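Suppose you are handed a protein chain with no further information: no name, no annotation, nothing but its sequence. What can you learn? This example shows the usual starting point.
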Amino acid sequence: MNVFLLNSVGLVINCILADSVAKAQAAHPNYTAMQAVTGYDIGWTYSNGVWTAPAPPVPNPVMHKLDFLNLFGLPTITSIQSAAATDATISAGLMMLNAAVEVNTTDPDTLYFVNYLASKNLITAAQQTAILGT
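A reasonable first move is to predict its three-dimensional structure. Written in structure tokens, the prediction is:
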């Protein structure tokens, strides 16, 4: 049978194969053993009969420059490139992006550039949120 091992706060830290819950508990006295329940897994928390899902993973704010550009889409990139001809801030932002290998969406310069593009209506609020992961 599959048996969950829970730590002191009810977090499922492992799922093991055992002859019984009692034998699993005897073999792992520092944990609480319980029969595994379909639909739940390592990372879930169990407390007072209630299962709580683990928090969704936090997206990595660092990505390859091409992945970052793909968040904008080609039509938007074309509009941004055109606007750079008459806007020094956009031109500088593209210059910095061109020099980068990776982009960190939590970097103050990246935040400023993306927010600036939104303020100039070159990207929508939805795009801004998607790009910055907020």
